């Protein structure tokens, strides 16, 4: 997944595969990658030293999950992690 942040072409063509499930790519840039499968999804955010991988189940609003994960990433970046 780390390579997808620099070159998202593979996940654009083949999707995001996590825990045996395939998620369709919704958006990818040098900081964040978003995927969806039916009513659930994944959010990947790169910080300076880590990649946060979050899954939200059906019933959770994607925007709410995204906001929380992005805020956690912002905090980790602010403390140089």
From TrEMBL:
It is found in: Cytoplasm, Cytoskeleton. One of its GO terms (cellular component) is cytoskeleton. Keywords: Actin-binding, Cytoplasm, Cytoskeleton. CDD domains: PROF. SUPFAM superfamilies: Profilin (actin-binding protein). GO terms for molecular function: actin monomer binding. Signal peptide: none annotated. InterPro entries: PFN (IPR048278), PFN_euk (IPR005455), PFN_sf (IPR036140). Gene3D superfamilies: Dynein light chain 2a, cytoplasmic. The keyword Cytoplasm applies. SMART domains: PROF (SM00392). Belongs to the profilin family. This is Profilin.
């Amino acid at each position: 997944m780390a390579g997808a942040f620099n070159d998202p072409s593979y996940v654009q063509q083949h999707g995001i595969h996590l825990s045996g499930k395939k998620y369709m790519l919704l958006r990818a840039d040098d900081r964040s990658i978003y995927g969806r499968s039916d009513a659930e999804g994944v959010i990947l955010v790169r910080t300076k030293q880590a990649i946060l991988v979050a899954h939200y189940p059906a019933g959770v609003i994607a925007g709410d999950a995204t906001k929380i994960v992005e805020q956690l990433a912002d905090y980790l970046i602010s403390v140089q992690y």
